[in-house]
Amino acid sequence: MAKAKFILKEPNSKEDTLIYLLYRYQYKRFKYSTGEIINPKFWNATSQRVKSTKQFPEYPEFNARLDKLENGINNAFRKLLNDGIQPNNTILKKALESELDDNILKPRQVSLFEFIDSYIEESKLNKSIGTIKVYNTAYKYLKEYSKKKRPVDFSTITLEFYNQYLGFLKTEHNLSSNTIGKHIKTIKSFMNEATERGINTNMEFRNKRFKTIREEADTVYLSVDELAKIEKIDLSSSPRLDKVRDLFLIGCYTGLRFSDFIQIRPENIVSNNTVIEIRTQKTGQRVSIPLHKTVRSILKKYNNQLPKAYTNQTMNSYLKEIVSLAGIKEKVETSITKGGKVEKKPVSKYKLVSTHTARRSFATNLYLAEVPTISIMKITGHKTERSFLQYIRVTQKENADKLLTHPFFN
């Protein structure tokens, strides 16, 4: 017997989440986005409807729309059987939408820019400031393109748009390949979210040629010897640099992101002060990291209560000063593709150091120390060995030195 059911996309969310219609028929399962969103606290999972509550006064109309959807899918399925048509998910979807066209006044179609506006506002409640900044910057360029070149909407996000937009960002804004890639990735995120919510039906953005471009970034890591130099600097006359140095070294020996290592609290230090256990902000993963002797020393210095960090931007500025004081000034050749042209120039290594260098240094130093890759990935959170190996920074000489100890070369 065919049966309709409504479920929440994220039933444990604290924010509004999408409602799906599930329809089981003839040992098949049909899933359809209703386009309706609701805060789970107002949802009754047993009745599969919104609770009758004064906190959500529009519940009668909301539930009436769900009733019409349930009636619509049942009518569509019954009509197909009566017409001698064997249902499948594609046929059933068409039949349902035809039924809805006949019985429900469809709301005005939301435009891409209207969706992005509301999505960014919604994201402010559950995403980081950095992510919101990325969204707003990508949105700014998209609106500019729409005004100067041709109007943009869901239906226009095609391969033709992709190729023209790449040219627009390269020639008119002289953006680097990685920055352009970030904007394309953000557009794909907007389109994916709109598709999940049943707002978008144009799937051309999922074409393999609609790809996120990137080039290897000129990122550096600090070796164990370089970290020792940084640790030995006497910064007692500059409390600001001393604090930043200590926090940075915590990152270098734990592999945690900036947003995580500045959040370490006494309760995160477990197993007789030998392990840090923390849930990472970006992925929500719980990681356990053995305490390096340098980390133990720094924690002891602050009685396990690390000082409050400066902003990431301020930390990056102070770090360059610290690494320069440590004498790490060798020249590193950098290259970047801007406006379609490759620009190369030598830069002092200390100028390339940022808070994220800590995490990259951790991964690279452990890899060179022959710690099993899978063990490092348990801490860094990389899902595949391929992505991990792209992340670490090992020179050709370091790789050769590492191989010298391998049985194949002995």
TrEMBL record:
One of its GO terms (molecular function) is DNA binding. The keyword Protein transport does not apply. Residues 217-404 form the Tyr recombinase domain. Residues 110-195 form the Core-binding (CB) domain. Keywords: DNA integration, DNA recombination, DNA-binding. Signal peptide: none annotated. GO terms for biological process: DNA integration; DNA recombination. Pfam families: Arm-DNA-bind_5, Phage_int_SAM_5, Phage_integrase. The keyword Ribonucleoprotein does not apply. Belongs to the 'phage' integrase family. This is Site-specific integrase.
